[in-house]
């Protein structure tokens, strides 16, 4: 049903650490790999070996530069569905294929009832919905709903494929509705933020901002230079300053 | 009504473990199989390399497995080389032909076979095969990859960055990463950086380009390419000036106090003063006498002039080192312009290093015993760690630059201590390892195996593989005066030298998994010329026969005569051996296997199977029994289990002995592979904590390593701040000794064989006018691509289907160049047209691009108009394998003068705006055909089959 | 936004159809035209053809047209579903009124009720169409108070042009119809001009810095896209029309869609009926409205494009 649940028992989501992501694409391809054979199977690819190759991916990794010149920085920016609390992508759906689960807040598209009108993708400011040209329906991040409760997987593997694969540990999964969960604490500790909060969709996924750099421009740039040993003696004298010290050891 | 979601569907009929081969990292994987197809590949949580994680490449392994570029059957060329015209032949015919070609060479002149392997992970087998064959011409691709790293490390401290050691991620407080490092140990480094981030340790990246790891560094130092050594030398100077070096550590573990003979002009000037037994001497301050420097508990002088028994002067090596680096040449202000790093930054980083090293000591309550039997109740470390790879290695000054980094590490006391850089067993080895190269011209004879391994570590000119005139014995001129310490060979020179018949012609070029007609070669245009050049008299190709083995339709396939199709990594047995490039961790040695997880659906065979078969057909020693029957009738797995390199030591260290009870040394165990499979296809032997650090001088570790056969003796490793082998070459260049370089080599040898590291400008730049070629041009490997393999992968090629030239934004604007403009990248060899992307985070004097995206149209079974060919480009076309011509000068290869490492990153270019029409990269080579009909799908629906399965079960 | 021709045809054709349907019934109910059989057959026939063709065309935009029936289920939250429901609902009263008109030749009594209901339903259908776009917060040019009104007024204006022409063709020209059409065109143009002026002057409040949350570090620019070739989002939302090109097209839309038809109809009326002028007016209005609708999509900037290099949205 495309009307939204009043509340959800849990708010499952991801916390993505922009300070740690190196942009390696592990989360993107592991997502593609799991999901092309999973709940939304297949995620088709057009012209896979030709010109203009493109396909349905549920997680894409951008890179941005923020600032200019010496003050600039490079930030890798994974982008996928934020599983918003009040998403328009669900309410605009004419068929009920798109819905938000009451039990955990996951926003899903039912690939068997979606008519491929693409309106939900128009309603999403985050580009989270990807139309599958080969399948004729809309695809999106399922938060690996077919992994996280899957009894056929080891308990420690019951996390989204992207979190499971991430080599740097930049992706965290948990219940953001529970203030005491590890992810909620992490968000508080690191000043996690919402994407485009002014849109009013209340994203569940949070992003952790890149931390202050510790280079010469940093406010806390500690030491400046090492003091020279042996005062203002000549270079050769200094060299022999070593002799004194080492001879007395 | 709520739709029913099947949240707990069965994910696999079967899960098999194996080892990834989507790059050189060799992570453990779990392959989920459903209906005989690969459903999913994930990292193996138990595996020491990746602890469960998997990178973007590894997670796209399915698309490699089902790539349309997979070769399908043995091929024999029918058209001209380079056209891609082949006929399919049977394996019998293919192996018969190969046996005939190779047998003829072996019976007449084995050196006429050049056998070079690329991204080979079975070098202990391929190398051993080449020994038995008897050709001196064997190496893998290390010479164009990382030999500067390997050689500098091994000659300095018996270990190396690369994948042979790692930062102590758990304890380090300050981590410096030099250059690009995404090519090896990529997941371990990502995991490690993640740990540093979580702990708040400082991470400094020294790299002209700010992407990948550098993007998240706490400090990015956007240095000019090829000047890292200068930057490090300046840090060393700051440390010495401020007296911030670990003197205790230097006395204990290094040759800093060893006395160096100071007798200019004599044959032993610059060598260590030794006693009659050959022990180095030091001046003991306690007794006031010269004494064996290897004795424990002496108090050696580090500074001073001392008189030897014969009355000559000698000085401690440290004094020479200090003199060199206190020179004002290395003052921060002096190096600021050349490196692009402000003097203040250099001073601040030096101060931070000193602070981390000396004020933040890491103390572990772990008792241990040193080499001399002295007991210590704690392990104390200086938590500074460093790592470097290709960015340092791929310059013509890479050997010395890498040595400079190691010297800095050693001065700070941070090798194999808590928080420092740690060896991974079987390292450390001796400095250098006790293994000399084999294959001197006089030792090569028809039908005879070579006396020993091809690759080794010369200690002086006597160990070179040259004839009495100084002419190289190897086709790649490794271990000649061109590249005396070429410990990995010079694969990048093989085709050029063979084409020029310099030093001699060859008959068969046998390559494995190396794209030497495209992205793995320097100077593509001329190398293609050598591959297709014909002898004017005979009309035959100058390189008469080329045998190539690859799993995929790479650009090289089209240039070979006989193709032996390899399997994919999921279809094969393999062993990642301690005899080869191990997958060990610092806490203990590890090795691993691949097992076939699915059956090939094509007429292909694993190259290693083929090599063992060829060995038996050629009746090579070791490959046949006394009766001439194949020694390994079971093929590669038979070899893996039953081959013994030395008694009790075989390719795999785990589960040896009669019942599989032994580790490391023991009789072959029939169920060894089964045990590996049961354990997740790897074996990790965790060492006791008392052996975790100071492995170079840890009695317990050294004794154990001796038992394991890692080493010849249990003597400690002494770090060679001052390198005596280098001085041996230097003295030869001054005319001393029986083997001296030909005249035209002398100046070069004398200059670059300096026993102390130093910095010099990379060659190409110093031979060209800066004004003509103001930019350094480098490449980086994208994290989601490994060499050119990724372009056949339907998923990875969506991520990187074309590449741009990245230019510093401010510099581009000065040149009136905007995003998406087309430019000519002009080097002294030619020009390449590319599209531009402006970037803030790149050194202003550097341009760069992603490596190996550009493809030859038609290769890799892609459509001929694929963007890889129309909007992708290589810098290889501009990178010469030879240095620019100098008046009257001998043409050296574009390589490090010490090791022969290919200097990919020395390229200098200028940038000019190009016309936007046609919007296509240049040069554009004539497309190559595929030997089969292209029947590429418009839409790929991989995974649909698993979905149907879901419905069939009616859930 | 990518201007999909199926959607452009759908909204313009069915809009005109609903407009014609409503005005035809309205004129009869008010006694301004008589429910003559020929007028009924041609009028309702044309209206239904336009409506049905439009609706069918809209399914061509669907990835799974065979499942289109599912779109009637979510009228409680979805304007698209409401549009579908209303479109179908409209057929009931409209069908009854049309049958009455053609078979009985009258629109009185119960048939009048059906007529009024059909007018209301048609209006609501077009309003729902407008609201599909107007409800999208992600597209500043669409999330605008004038959008739904534009849709309704344009449907009426194009319907009025058709009605006037039909009356002329069927031999019962009507001054009221002509001046209704001219007035509707004038109002529609005024609203469209106001809309254009409004979207041109509005602030682009969203930037890449805001979209990524990285604005705190300075100006944000994309370095590498996730994939090197355009993906669905870029193909669907990444359409951009040049400023100059758009201005030209606006002029064409205003001239062909509004000014020229109004002038032609007025001249024809003054000349006492000139079917050929009416025909030109219809053709011109159709072309103009298609351009207007194309621009409606092409000028719409989706916030998501900020992640793909758009400076602001």
Summarize the structure.
The complex is a heterotrimer of chains A (249), B (955) and C (313). Chain A is an alpha+beta fold.
Number of helices of chain A: 7
| Largest interface in this structure | A-B, 100 and 113 residues
Helix content of chain A: 10-25%
Strand order within the widest beta sheet of chain B: 5-4-25-24-23-6-7
Model description:
The complex is a heterotrimer of chains A (249), B (955) and C (313). Helix content of chain A is 20%, strand content 18%. By secondary structure, chain A is of the alpha+beta class. Chain A is globular, with a radius of gyration of 25 Å. Chain B has a seven-stranded mixed β-sheet with strand order 5-4-25-24-23-6-7, sandwiched between helices. A six-stranded mixed β-barrel of chain B has the order 29-33-30-32-31-34. A four-stranded parallel β-sheet of chain B has the order 11-10-9-21, sandwiched between helices. Chain C is mainly alpha-helical. Chain C has helices at residues 5-29, 37-60, 79-104, 110-134, 145-169, 175-201, 208-212, 232-237, 243-270, 275-298, and one strand spanning 220-224. The radius of gyration of chain C is 21 Å and the shape is globular. The two termini of chain C are 12 Å apart. The model of chain C has no long low-confidence stretch (mean pLDDT 95). Chains in contact: A-B, A-C, B-C. At the A-B interface, helix 1, strand 2, strand 3, strand 5 and helix 4 of A face strand 3, helix 5, helix 6, helix 7 and helix 9 of B. Strand 4 of chain A pairs antiparallel with strand 1 (220-224) of chain C, so a sheet runs across the interface.
